[in-house]
Design a protein that fits this description.
Layout lengths: L2 H29 L2 H7 L1 E4 L4 E2 L2 E2 L2 E2 L2 E2 L1 H10 L4 E3 L9 H17 L7 E4 L17 H7 L3 H15 L5 E2 L23 H16 L14 E5 L18 H17 L4 E4 L3 E2 L2 E2 L4 H11 L5 E3 L4 H7 L7 H11 L4 E2 L4 H13 L5 H17 L19 H14 L1 E5 L12 E4 L7 H4 L11 H4 L6 H9 L4 E4 L9 H6 L3 H9 L3 E7 L17 H11 L4 E7 L15 E4 L7 H9 L13 E2 L31 E3 L10 E8 L3 E2 L7 E9 L5 E11 L10 E10 L4 E8 L6 E2 L5 E2 L3 E10 L2 E10 L1
The structure holds beta-D-glucopyranose.
Beta-D-glucopyranose binds next to loops.
Length: about 775
């Protein structure tokens, strides 16, 4: 059959399939009582369904049949989430527990299966023994979306091995605020990168045609809609003020890409935008998400967020009004997660009193049933670990390593100090050198990531990996300091800088491993973006040794290093590279792998310069005017898109097929450039193309990333990189909140980073 006919045939099968599924969902909903419906809309935490003790390493936790019966049969609860005590469990444990839950659901009148959800956000977080990946921020730093696809596929596989069909991933919040504790969970500051990676991660999790009923696919959940990453205070779940055109311009694209990729579910932003909690916003949930952006799947709240409309936000006088607000705004399922009896009782009352229309309940429940049908849970409610032989296989581990090594970013390499010859004497110091938490971050076998030593004993720390690479006798280590000025390690280390300096003096090079301990959400809130004082002091002390210092950063967000960064010889940003992050780092330090990551965010230099690369044009700076000591508007430590290699690249021969097009043109603008590896070893370059709108009716950004491509080049090799754009790529959201293209002059800028533009091409829309 010709390709076109195939596509048409698949489309017919798909449409017929959707129609049949919708019909079946309607039939089921038509048989349901109100009590059964509100039960389906409820999601509860597993902790309330268990008995036994959880005192690791001994745990007797298991299902409490009476509690499960009460929730699932008496109250018809439709969904369960989370790992008990946010602690990973073996696939077999999950198999057994979810089987019990499904068995109980089968005893209920309509036998509607339960949907279990877990935060498997960089690999199967809550499954012991799973293949954890680098965090999303590392995937973005690789500028290679294939890693997101792979991570999605493997996560889905290992989650199904755990008998769980739903993950609360991908995180699509715009990571434009370096203070935010969840920046590492997302794809960085650029809306276009976010969109490309969103699509790939969704397709990886759900499959090319979103066939989530297959035994190796699960439902994805894009989150947290909308505007979560931009609180005024920089702290989690605090208010943001975001004009609607700004929300649409920067925050919606990744979500739109996920919707277009067929994502089945969405979770809502726990915080408040423009004084309205998003969970209470009919405008955002129904008008924007459903009606405009075309999302047809199921909307779930974040943790306890309906109650928070009352007990945190003071928006309503009681929980009942909170439920009314949330459900009428468009919520389909409430992550309650504990007092389900209250939720079910009050929502039933609200419907009986006419305060929540039955049509809204039916709409929500229909979407939930459709999701369960798509997952094939009615026919195959359980999947078993024994059917998943590739669980944490060599192939999966390799994929995690590949993603890690492709994202690690070389930020500084004075006099080509790196790579470091084998046999060199190294002194390793800093709290991150022996910390697996620092390499993996939050959501790693537990919520805060503190259980990695227990679940990941076989993985290497940075010190382990460097010792393996350079030989134990060549590597010495002294921790130097802990992270903070308080806590039990402070007294131990505050006066021990001397030992760090002595260690440094006896070595050829110092590998200084600094950054952050693991965290996520509220516990990760910050009062000071600078790297902690103790670590900064350690850096300064070690620098006094006069030895060459390689700074290795492992951190969930760019902590400020400007107090000493100009004195170190090299800087390697590992972000949160995952279980094989240390192996990947050692390969890069030794030159076995040529680094090729580039920053997916602007690395700020100072606390008052936290602006992404897509800022507005600044006033002309008056040079050297000491009288005013003017620092410039947009200072950064390193610009967005920046990263070095052990080889060098040259750009030449820029071409464009048309330099002018009429406003209504539909044809493509095709731009190409030749990139040559001018150094003496193979390497990968991320070629970036930005557009600059030279004037517009709404002040334009100085530039916006429009396309990118990572190319692999042998020494001396040249490749032509071609980008295809349409005029829509030059559009923006105007003050009427409409996407428009305006006539005018533009410049395409092709470069190696947002601040290293190699070629410029003029372009006009008439
Ligand atoms: C987080 C979500 C997560 C949910 C369920 C919340 O605290 O904000 O990202 O999916 O918990 O664990």
């Amino acid at each position: 059959m010709k390709k076109g006919l195939w596509i048409a045939a698949i489309a017919v099968i798909f449409v017929t399939g959707v129609q049949a599924r919708n019909k079946r969902a309607e039939e089921i909903v038509s048989q349901m009582t109100l009590a059964e419906k509100v039960g389906q809309m409820s999601q509860i935490a597993i902790d309330g369904l268990l008995q036994g003790r959880d005192t690791p390493p001994v745990s007797t936790l298991q299902i409490d049949p009476a509690k499960v019966r009460e929730a699932i049969v008496d109250y018809h609860i439709g969904s369960v989430l989370n790992a008990p005590n946010t602690r990973a469990r073996t696939p077999e444990w999950w198999n057994e527990v979810v089987v019990q839950i499904q068995k109980t659901a089968n005893e209920d009148r309509l036998k509607i299966p339960v949907i279990y959800g877990l935060d498997q956000i960089h690999g199967a977080t809550y499954t012991a023994g799973s293949t954890m990946f680098p965090q999303e921020i590392n995937l973005a730093a690789s500028w290679n979306p294939a890693h997101a696809r792979k991570m999605g596929e493997i996560t889905a596989y290992e989650t199904r091995a755990s008998n769980v069909p739903w993950t609360f991933s991908p995180v699509l919040d715009l990571g434009l605020d370096p203070r935010f504790s969840r920046q590492y969970e997302a794809f960085g500051e650029d809306p276009y990168i976010g969109s490309v990676f969103a699509r790939e991660l969704v397709k990886g999790i759900e499959g090319d045609n979103n066939t989530i009923g297959e035994a190796t696919k699960i439902a994805a959940c894009m989150k947290h809609f909308l505007g979560y990453g931009a609180p005024i205070s920089g702290k989690d779940r605090t208010p943001a003020y975001i004009p609607e055109n700004v929300l649409r311009e920067y925050h919606t694209p990744a979500f739109q890409a996920a919707i277009d990729a067929g994502v089945h579910t969405v979770m809502i932003n726990s915080a408040i935008i423009n004084n309205v909690p998003v969970h209470a916003s009919y405008d955002l949930l129904t008008k924007l998400l459903r009606e405009e952006m075309g999302f047809k799947g199921m909307i779930v709240t974040d943790w306890e967020d309906i109650n928070k409309l009352y007990n945190r936000d003071h928006l309503v006088p009681n929980i009942k009004e909170a439920i009314k607000k949330g459900i009428n705004a468009g919520i389909d399922m409430s992550m309650i997660p504990y007092d389900y009896k209250q939720f079910c009782t009050l929502l039933t009352e609200l419907v009986n009193e006419g305060e929540v229309p039955m049509s809204r309940i039916d709409d929500a429940v229909t979407r939930i049933i459709q999701l369960k049908l798509d997952l094939n849970l009615f026919d195959v409610p359980n999947t078993y670990a024994k059917d998943y032989p590739k669980f944490n296989s060599k192939e999966f581990q390799q994929a995690s390593y590949d993603a890690a090594v492709d994202g690690i970013t070389l930020l500084k390499n004075k006099d080509q100090v790196l790579p470091l010859q084998k046999g060199t004497k190294l002194f390793v110091t800093g709290p991150n050198a022996v910390s697996k938490r620092a390499l993996n971050g939050g959501w790693t076998f537990s919520w805060q990531g503190e259980k990695i030593d227990e679940f990941g004993a076989q993985y290497l720390t940075i010190l382990d990996a460097i010792q393996q690479k350079y030989g134990k006798t060549n590597v010495t280590y002294f921790p130097g300091v802990s992270y903070n000025n308080k806590g039990k390690y402070y007294d131990e280390y505050k006066d021990r800088f001397d030992e760090a300096i002595a260690g440094a003096k006896n070595a050829d090079y110092v590998i200084l491993c600094l950054g952050e301990n693991s965290y996520c959400e509220k516990p990760g809130d910050l009062d000071d973006l600078y790297l902690s004082d103790l670590q900064t002091e350690l850096a300064k002390e070690v620098l006094k040794s006069g030895k060459k210092v390689i700074l290795v950063l492992s951190e969930g967000r760019p902590r400020l290093i400007s107090k000493f960064s100009n004195q170190v010889d090299a800087i390697v940003q590992t972000y949160l590279p995952g279980i094989y992050g240390a192996d990947a780092l050692a390969d890069i330090l030794a030159g076995d792998v040529n680094p090729s990551g580039k920053l997916p965010y602007t690395y700020p230099a100072f606390p008052n310069s936290l602006i992404p690369y897509y800022h507005k044009y600044a006033e002309e700076q008056e040079n050297n005017d000491v009288a005013y000591n003017y620092e410039g508007d947009y200072n950064f430590e390193y610009p967005f898109g920046y990263g070095l290699s052990y080889t060098t690249f040259a750009y030449s021969n820029p071409k464009i097929n048309k330099t002018t097009l009429p406003l209504d043109a539909k044809e493509e603008v095709i731009i190409s450039v030749d990139v040559t590896n001018t150094g003496n070893r193979e390497g990968k370059e991320v070629v970036q193309i930005y557009s600059a709108d030279l004037y517009a009716s709404l002040i334009p950004d100085v530039k916006r990333l429009r396309r990118f491509e990572k190319v692999d080049l042998k020494s001396g090799e040249t490749k032509t990189v071609t980008f295809k754009l349409t005029l829509n790529d030059l559009s923006f959201i105007n003050l009427e909140n409409k996407r428009i293209v305006e006539a005018g002059d533009f410049e395409f800028q092709i470069g190696a980073s947002s601040a290293d533009i190699k070629e410029k091409i003029k372009f006009t829309i008439k």
